[in-house]
Amino acid sequence: MNFSEVFKLSSLLCKFSPDGKYLASCVQYRLVVRDVNTLQILQLYTCLDQIQHIEWSADSLFILCAMYKRGLVQVWSLEQPEWHCKIDEGSAGLVASCWSPDGRHILNTTEFHLRITVWSLCTKSVSYIKYPKACLQGITFTRDGRYMALAERRDCKDYVSIFVCSDWQLLRHFDTDTQDLTGIEWAPNGCVLAVWDTCLEYKILLYSLDGRLLSAYSAYEWSLGIKSVAWSPSSQFLAVGSYDGKVRILNHVTWKMITEFGHPATINNPKTVVYKEAQKSPQLGLGCLSFPPPGAGAGPLPSSESKYEIASVPVSLQTLKPVTDRANPKIGIGMLAFSPDSYFLATRNDNTPNAVWVWDIQKLRLFAVLEQLSPVRTFQWDPQQPRLAICTGGSRLYLWSPAGCMSVQVPGEGDFAVLSLCWHLSGDSMALLSKDHVCLCFLETEAAVSTACRQLGGHT
Amino acid sequence: MGDWMTVTDRGLSSESKSISQYTSEIKMSPSSLYSQQVLCSSIPLSKNVHSFFSAFCTEDNIEQSVSYLDQELTTFGFPSLYEESKGKETKRELNIVAVLNCMNELLVLQRKNLLAQENVETQNLKLGSDMDHLQSCYSKLKEQLETSRREMIGLQERDRQLQCKNRNLHQLLKNEKDEVQKLQNIIASRATQYNHDMKRKEREYNKLKERLHQLVMNKKDKKIAMDILNYVGRADGKRGSWRTGKTEARNEDEMYKILLNDYEYRQKQILMENAELKKVLQQMKKEMISLLSPQKKKPRERVDDSTGTVISDVEEDAGELSRESMWDLSCETVREQLTNSIRKQWRILKSHVEKLDNQVSKVHLEGFNDEDVISRQDHEQETEKLELEIQQCKEMIKTQQQLLQQLATACDDDTTSLLRDCYLLEEKERLKEEWSLFKEQKKNFERERRSFTEAAIRLGLERKAFEEERASWLKQQFLNMTTFDHQNSENVKLFSAFSGSSDRDNLTVHSRQPQKKPHSVSNGSPVCMSKLTKSLPASPSTSDFCQTRSCISEHSSINVLNITPEEIKPNQVGGECTNQKWSVASRPGSQEGCYSGCSLTYTNSHVEKDDLP
């Protein structure tokens, strides 16, 4: 595993282009586009203010930089550096900006969700969509880029509008049987739309592309409901994580629950492999008395080593006692992700923040649990194979694959606290983001990694 | 005490009555005290009785005492002590006989009384002990009763407490339920209130939003604008189209197309899955049938319901027939048929397995040990029998040897000559048998020889052909040395493979037989010879085997082809056989010699064998 030198970064704004050739990163008001392979700066754009959001167009030709504070969006072309485009939302303000899948339209959401403005880069035409709903995930595009579903709110009722992206024509408009719609998400095949209600009520509705209600599912009542939703890449399964600390898997034929995955604090099943991150100071030899005791130093020491150990069941995981009288309590399944081949599901229960649970979807059982020393910040699957990258805000990168797992220290002077990460399309590299820096991590070829993992798995 | 009265027998009670009668009468007498004492006194006291009585009668009051006694006795029903007076004035004389009789009777009575007393006393004692026992029992039972009563009270107390607790818990539960109900109501009311509030707030919010919208949007904000250098082309290169009814229809069409595609894809997947499952079912069925059919017959025959097998066979046939069309048809009849047949088979299998299980358990329960023991006993018996037989045989052999020796030494006696005649006759018979056997063998040999010569001739012909072919091939190769062409080489390969195999054939056929011969000869009996002759006609099959073997190895032997047959022979033969004759036999010219040599070794070995004993 190799690491590039670190580059400056601000606000964790760093993205690979969809074609995998470029890497865009922001430093204050400057946008830097690098070649992924050579890491040489290809373009350098200067925006009017500090950039708060960047997004590549789907064809990797344009990149938009949003400055929400100023209500501004600036678009840059990679092919024509002199080409420029500036969209000013004026006094209406700006809270969100995104590309349409064709890469020629920009959807700007004004403040207070008054409307969505669709700006075209091809024509002068400007379209407005009124009544967008202010919610977590109110806009979703199908994977083929043909349709957009938008959550709306009119007269205290939730609606969903389906637009054809090519000409922004309204295709379907229907009300949903929800109290307070929170999110919508297309299935990867673009034929089913999942709509879920606010966390106060456990309700998930499935609509066909033509607006028919396919099914509604509710696991329980009178308790905090859905926290996270994820489609499997094969569109076969819909994983619903909820505040009761369970993931329920719905199937795509009957839309009934196949199984539910509980996240107990103790793991008793001997078939489950529990990897526990253990810390070791390098100066401590085997069998030597540790002095001062390892618990004395608070926080991970930069010089200390960490590795995974296989804990023997039963294992009890570190749990947090949630503060129940505050909003958004730290309980329930907050993160859910299917592996690209749909064979594995990674979850994080928010009251056991140090653990990542990996479930085997083929056998519908818990496959492995990784318990880190510090709370898991984020995890992301390799787009090419079942390999999970995890970061915990420390200077380490953790990788899991069915063969085993390993932790890698990010080199460089000082502590490189990995706050976020994103995989390159090919799965050969990833960008590790810290507060002020970005660093590229190049993984070995598949074979080399798998052997390494096997060795590691054998060792641990 | 009442018990005691009932327990005593009649005799005793009557005696006691008489005793009481005595005592009541005696009370009148002056010496009633004494008499009572006498009655109640035990045996040790009886000695004092005389002294007491002496005090009763003194010299002075003889008359009185006698009369008193007489009076007393008469009242008790004894005869009078006085003689019967003839006249009233005359003084009554004391009748001594009567006195003695009375005395005797009194004594007898006394003894009887004593006996009765003793009985009564023992009875009394017994009863006393009984009573003690009963009393102790009674007290014990009373104690038990007390303890159980106490226990009962304790239990009752506990029961009461538990009931109390239960009631409390019930109450608590009810309270909790009420609480839950109340809370649920509260939640519901709160929810409605919240919703209501939310709605109200939202309406307000919407109103504000509307106003804001108007304010912001209607001001014709100059700032809201897009500043762009030049418009870029669409990603698909097309120009944007106007929105018309047509586009709407087109969009609808496309949407439905997408949906249809999805459904079609899913249907295809389901069909595929179905087909796979059907395949699995079919295979399962086939396997079940194949598994059950051989085993099924035996129990079926036993149970003799052959109709079942017929039906199932018919069904199987039907299944076979429809299998071809099965994949295309997904109609219900086929499905039903398949599932039904599978179910039936499964039931049969299940019952079979259950039966087996039962058998196994039965065997485990009863049969296992017995059978084992029996077999062991049998073994022992058998071995004993065999040992005995061996012993007998040995003895027989010994006696026969002795007899033979006697015969050899002394042949002058008539008896011995007779015996010898007998033996000679026997020997003759045996020799005749052997002779016939030999003849048969000879015939076999002859037949063998004929076939062998034929084979050899054929081989020679083949060999000749091969030689020719080889020559031609070599020629061809020489010719093709300059212009090597691919097709030709392939032909050559094919040809060479064939020829190589045939060449090998010849060698291996010849060289295999000698390997067998010494082995069979070494077994060493005339019977073995016949075996050998039997095995000889089987040589074509062995040659077949050799052919296949050489076919397998033909790929590796292609390169050997360049070597001349003279070179091959030592290698091949040397590997398989050490006998020089067989290497000679492989030459086409000496087939006859081969066979003769072969037969020669047979006879030689046979002769050697005969010489051995």
From TrEMBL, chain A:
Entry's Gene Ontology BP terms: cell projection organization; mitotic spindle assembly; positive regulation of non-motile cilium assembly
InterPro entries found in the cross-reference section: Centrosome-WD_assoc, WD40/YVTN_repeat-like_dom_sf, WD40_repeat_dom_sf, WD40_rpt
Keyword list, A-Z: Cilium biogenesis/degradation, Cytoplasm, Cytoskeleton, Phosphoprotein, Repeat, WD repeat
One Gene Ontology cellular component: centrosome
Locations listed in the record: Cytoplasm, Cytoskeleton, Microtubule organizing center, Centrosome
Keyword Ribonucleoprotein among record annotations: no
Chief subcellular location: cytoplasm
Superkingdom of origin organism: Eukaryota
Record text on subunit structure and interactions: Interacts with SSX2IP.
Function according to Swiss-Prot or TrEMBL: The SSX2IP:WRAP73 complex is proposed to act as regulator of spindle anchoring at the mitotic centrosome. Required for the centrosomal localization of SSX2IP and normal mitotic bipolar spindle morphology. Required for the targeting of centriole satellite proteins to centrosomes such as of PCM1, SSX2IP, CEP290 and PIBF1/CEP90. Required for ciliogenesis and involved in the removal of the CEP97:CCP110 complex from the mother centriole.
Protein name: WD repeat-containing protein WRAP73
UniProtKB/TrEMBL annotation, chain B:
Stretches assigned to coiled coil: 131-218, 376-448
Main location: other
Residue ranges with Polar residues bias: 532-542
Gene Ontology CC entries for this record: adherens junction; centriolar satellite; ciliary basal body
InterPro entries to which the protein is assigned, alphabetical: Adhesion_Centrosome_assoc, Afadin/alpha-actinin-bd
Higher taxonomy: Eukaryota, Metazoa, Chordata, Craniata, Vertebrata
Family per record: Belongs to the ADIP family.
Transmembrane region(s): none
GO biological process, one term: cell adhesion
Protein name per the record: SSX family member 2 interacting protein
Gene name tied to this protein: SSX2IP
Keyword Coiled coil annotated: yes
Region described as Disordered: spans on this chain: 292-317, 501-542
Keyword vocabulary terms for this entry: Cell adhesion, Cell junction, Coiled coil, Cytoplasm, Cytoskeleton
Keyword check for rRNA-binding: no
Subcellular compartments: Cell junction, Adherens junction; Cytoplasm, Cytoskeleton, Microtubule organizing center, Centrosome, Centriolar satellite
